[in-house]
Design a protein that fits this description.
Among the domains are: 115 residues, no CATH class; 82 residues, no CATH class; 113 residues, no CATH class; 115 residues. It contains 43 helices and no strands. Helices cover 54% and strands 0% of the residues. Helix 9 packs parallel to helix 12, helix 34 packs parallel to helix 36 and helix 38 runs parallel beside helix 40.
């Protein structure tokens, strides 16, 4: 978190600006925090983490004493509670707070924080407290003997390693291993607890103490672990719940197996998926009843281990394969090791694989599938594939298939082929729209006869090329209802491709403009969820329709732009090309027209390709405001970014907002 400067210029955020930014304050640079309205502290106290730069700025602001919390020396335990997560940023401030307040408030704060943060974060916080006395006394207990009732989350902060050794009696340690093992001691303190336990139990720790060790188990080495008595699954589970190294995990499981344990479903649940991946393949081959353990996270396993576990799961579930959907639900946790033939079999059974599962498949096996295999495998989840263009498995598949094959899935890229299809990039006007060439091999006589008396139930019986090559006078007689129905025939689930763009462009050029507008308006009203339309289909429609709109004499008229971008383009606006945005930017669009376009773009922003989103934020928004400079900071954000605020949380958006803070603040 943090580190984002306001356009590199620094900025004094007002109270209202802080309110508008909301959770985005968590990404602000420390210099902005230092210079902004004091209300920024309340906005920051819910942030999940802080950079070092932010920590320094927050602590300095709190120590000024001008916030509602007052100076630190006046704080009570309720003040520390009201600070939310801000205590995580404090260092020198702890010396200024009454010790009685710390002793009351900090155990509660640490206990709450441990529920949501990793042990490493708690250790850092404990070290920041600086509560240990600066004493070199290694002979006498100066902090006071530790009684069982005094052990709490603040104990590691009070007793350094030497004092812990001197102040902790054997009987208290022996009777409170569970509680001590749950505290955030640093490694040197844990080594003291380990040393003392080995002194108490010179013949080895009993199993009933081993399963209580908690964090203390992390400082035992492999040799020591190899001699432990691990015979019970609950002991195995307790150890697997700690942050042990991979070698130590293997040693624990090996010892469990040596003493007669078996890796059945109960033991597998105790081990867990992440730890399972650290075992060697010989150990994995001893697993029995793998699938009875439920869904295990195998994402950290090597491919060879995924393959082994998949084979085991498939053999165990062989009798279930006749019921494809239940079978898939049982096998999908292990399908990352499935070979291509098994994936084709799942595709033939139309299992509608979710994209999260698909991402974990072996890319080398997936690239052996063709586009139809993927369409059948993903089913109604195909659009998630189209949006996942940056995932490794998608990148490798695209790179290993021809352009024409890739286009069938609504994507661009692939190996150039010698297809006779018209080729284009995503810029409107680059497709050669030649009706004669397109229609030379198309027989539209059946469609021409159909158009004499349209039967609404058979509109989808014809291809888009048939409609493109139909007689113009027949197309001009189409009603807006019929045209709406035709559009609905071509919106999915199979995506349109580049050759369809040529046909669609020819088709819409032949239509009556009033009828086209009415049909698009009706289509917009019927299409409440545009996310169901494949991205490539949106690109195809946007490019074809732009060929009609770009030459309109009203292109800079605000009402015209509002109608097209907020209504008629709305179902397809996620497919707008970067070149269209740049074309509009270079045009004489008024500020009101700019707002109208921006509001329309927000309707499809979530579904836009990454590059288009970057263009909207970096080029379209910044470039326009750079030349207009009409609006103030708060007004700009309210007018232009309400929708984007909810849709885009990347550093790019924050950078845009930060830029506006400098550029538009007057």
């Amino acid at each position: 978190m943090g580190g984002l400067r306001m356009g590199g210029f620094g900025m004094n955020l007002t109270k209202r600006s802080v309110e508008i930014l909301g959770r985005l304050v968590c990404d602000l640079d420390g210099s902005v925090i230092t210079a902004s309205d004091i209300s920024i502290l309340d906005a920051l106290k819910t942030c999940s983490s802080y950079s070092e730069d932010q920590k320094r700025a927050i602590e300095d602001r709190l120590n000024r004493g001008d916030s509602k919390y007052g100076i630190p020396s006046s704080w009570s335990s309720s003040t520390i509670r009201d600070l939310g997560n801000l205590p995580l940023t404090l260092t020198y401030t702890w010396d200024r707070i009454a010790k009685v307040v710390l002793m009351e408030a900090l155990p509660r704060f640490i206990k709450k924080t441990k529920r949501t943060r990793p042990p490493h974060d708690i250790l850092i916080f404990i070290n920041q407290l600086n509560l240990q006395r600066r004493s070199n006394n290694t002979i006498n207990c100066t902090e006071g003997l530790i009684a069982a009732e005094d052990i709490n989350d603040l104990t590691p902060a009070i007793y350094n390693a030497a004092q812990l050794d001197l102040c902790l009696r054997d009987v208290v340690l022996k009777d409170n291993v569970l509680q001590l093992g749950s505290l955030a001691f640093d490694p040197t303190q844990l080594e003291i607890l380990k040393k003392r336990l080995l002194q108490i139990y010179p013949n080895g720790l009993p199993e009933n103490q081993i399963r209580l060790l908690g964090n203390i188990s992390t400082v035992f080495n492999v040799t020591e672990v190899s001699s432990w008595n691990i015979t019970r699954v609950d002991t195995l589970a307790a150890l697997m719940g700690q942050h042990l190294g991979n070698i130590t995990v293997r040693s624990v499981v090996t010892r469990f197996l040596q003493l007669g344990g078996i890796l059945d479903a109960i033991a597998l649940k105790a081990v867990g998926g992440a730890n399972l991946c650290t075992l060697d393949e010989i150990q994995l081959s001893t697993i029995s009843n793998l699938t009875d353990a439920g869904a295990l996270d195998l994402s950290m396993c090597t491919q060879s281990k995924k393959n082994l576990l998949y084979r085991q799961a498939r053999n165990q579930l062989k009798s279930q394969q006749s019921n494809p959907i239940p079978y898939f639900q049982l096998i999908k946790a292990y399908v990352g090791g499935a070979p291509a033939n098994d994936l084709k079999s799942l595709a033939n059974k139309r299992v509608n694989m979710d994209f999260e599962t698909f991402k974990e498949l072996n890319p080398e096996e997936v690239k052996q599938l063709n586009s139809q295999n993927l369409i059948d495998l993903l089913g109604f989840n195909l659009q998630d594939f189209q949006h996942g263009v940056n995932e490794t498995v998608v990148i490798i598949w695209v790179a290993s298939h021809s352009e024409s094959e890739v286009r069938k899935l609504g994507l661009t890229g692939g190996i150039p082929d010698n297809s006779s299809e018209p080729q284009s990039d995503d810029r409107p006007g680059n497709t050669t729209v030649n009706e004669t060439t397109l229609c030379s091999a198309v027989n539209s006589s059946a469609l021409n006869n159909f158009l004499i008396k349209v039967n609404m139930t058979h509109l989808c019986s014809f291809k888009i090329t048939d409609y493109a090559c139909a007689k113009t006078d027949r197309l001009l007689s189409l009603s807006s209802d019929a045209l709406t129905g035709i559009f609905q025939c071509f919106i999915g689930p199979k995506a349109l491709n580049r050759s369809n763009e040529v046909a669609l462009t020819v088709f819409v050029r032949k239509l009556d403009r009033t009828t086209l507008n009415e049909a698009l308006d009706k289509f917009n009203n019927k299409t409440l969820n545009a996310s169901s339309i494949p991205l490539m289909t949106k690109i195809t429609f946007m490019n074809a329709l732009w060929e009609i709109v770009k030459a309109n004499e009203n292109l800079t008229n605000t009402d015209f732009l509002r109608k097209w971008f907020q209504k008629l383009f709305r179902p397809f606006v996620a497919g707008i090309s970067q070149s269209v945005l740049k074309h509009l930017l270079m045009g004489n669009v008024t500020c009101d027209g700019y707002q109208a376009i921006t509001k329309g773009l927000s309707n499809g922003f979530r579904d836009m390709p990454h590059g288009t989103r970057e263009t909207v934020l970096r080029v379209w928004i910044i470039s326009y405001l750079n030349t207009s400079g009409k609006y103030g900071y708060e007004q700009s954000m309210k007018l232009f970014f309400g929708s984007y605020y909810q849709l885009h949380s990347s550093s790019t958006f924050v950078s845009v907002l930060c830029y506006l803070g400098h550029r538009c603040l007057h």
